[in-house]
Amino acid sequence: MDGCGGEWLSTPVASSCLENVTMENSSVGRIYEVMLQSTNSTKRNPQFVGVELLQSFKPLIIPCYALVVLVGVFGNYLLLYVICQTKKMHNVTNFFIGNLAFSDMLMCATCVPFTLAYAFNPRGWVFGRFMCYLVFLIQPVTVYVSVFTLTAIGVDRYYATVHPLKKRISVLACTYLLSGIWILSCGLVAPAVAHTYHVEFKDEGFTICEEFWMGQEKERLAYAYSTLFITYVLPLSALCISYLCISVKLRNCVVPGHRTQSQAEAQRARKRKTFRLVSLVVAAFGICWLPISVFNVLRDIDIDLIDKRYFLLIQLLCHLCGMSSSCCNPFLYAWLHDRFRAELRKMFTCHRRIGIGIPANNCATASVVL
Q1: Is 259 helix (H, G, I), strand (E, B) or coil?
Q2: Which InterPro entries does this one have (predicted)?
Q3: What range does the domain containing 203 cover?
Q4: What is the rounded end-to-end Cα distance, in angstroms, of the chain?
Q5: Burial status of residue 93 (CB atoms within 10 A of its CB: 0-12, 13-18, 19 or more)
Q6: How far apart are the C-alpha atoms of 120 and 130, rounded to whole Å?
Q7: Per the domain annotation, does 344 fall within a domain?
Q8: Residue 282 near residue 243 (C-beta atoms within 8 A)
Q9: What's the pTM value of the predicted model, to 2 decimals?
Q10: 45 burial level (CB within 10 Å; 0-12, 13-18, 19+)
Q11: Does residue 26 carry a pLDDT above 50?
C-alpha cells in the first residue's frame, strides 16, 4: 500500500519517459537528462488520452476530495478537541484514538491538496525540490501511522473485553508505543524517499517528483510486497482476529443473577450494537484500503494489466477511496458512541452558557471512555 507518495501518482510523461532517464555523478550531485518523445508521438500516446479523460472528470473529483478534507479535518479536530479539553478522558484508549485523529488530519492536509495539484497541473510538480522530499515523506508516514494505530486500538479493545482482569498498559507505555509507531512508519518510508527524485524538464516546462528504482526491479518489488503485507494484510488480520474474539466473548457473556425480560432484551440490544460497530470497523478498513492495494499489486506485476487510457482516473479514484478512511474513523471510534456525543453536547452547552454569563462551574464534566 503505497499510500499517496512515491510512485503512487506517477505522471504519464514520467511513465512514458522512464526508460530515457540517465544519471551522471558530479561534484554537485546527480544531473538528470530526460529525452522526451516528439510532440506528435506523445499526443498519440494512450497515456496522454488518459490525461484528457482525467481532466474531463475534474468537476466531479475535486468536490469529492473537498468533501473528504472538510469532513476528515473537522471531524478529527472535534475528536481531538474533546479529548484534550476533558481531563477525565486522558486514558490509554483515548490517547490511541487521539493519535489516530491527528494522523488522519495530517493525512488530509498533506495527501489531498498536493495530490490534486500534481494530478491536474500541466506543469507537474510546482512546489520545489525541498517540498518534493518533505511531502513525499509526510504523506505515507501519516497513512502508516493511521493503519498501525487502528491495529493498536483493536488489540487494546481485545484485552479490555476478553481479558478485563489483566493489567492494562500504562500511559507511559502508551507514549512509548505511539512513539514507536511513528518511528516505524518513518523507517518503512525511508527506502521510498531514498529513491525519490525531483526531475526538471526545462525545455518542456514541467517537473516531476517521482520514485525511481532504476536497475533495482527485484528490490522494488520486494519493498512493495513487504509494505503491502505490513500495512494492509497484517493489520487487517489483526483487526479481524481481535474483533472476532470480542464478538465471541460478548455472545458468551452471561450476566449473573435473575434478569427481567426488559433487562435481557437491553443486553441483547447492546450486544447487537457492539457487533455491528465491530463489523463496521473491520469493513471500513478493508474496503477503504482494498482498491489502492489491488491497484498497486497489479501495477507491480505488470503495468500493462491496467489500460493506460484509464490508468490515471482509476489511480485517483483508488486514492480517494483510501483517503475516505480519514472520514470514517471519527464516526466509528467516537461519534457512534453515546458517551462521546453526550460529552460534546455538554461541552458546547457549557460554552454557550459562559457566553451568556452563566457561571462555568455549572458545567460539570463527566468521565468518558470511548
Answers
A1: coil
A2: GPCR_Rhodpsn, GPCR_Rhodpsn_7TM, Prolrel_pep_rcpt
A3: 6-252+265-336
A4: 29
A5: middle
A6: 21
A7: no
A8: yes
A9: 0.79
A10: middle
A11: no
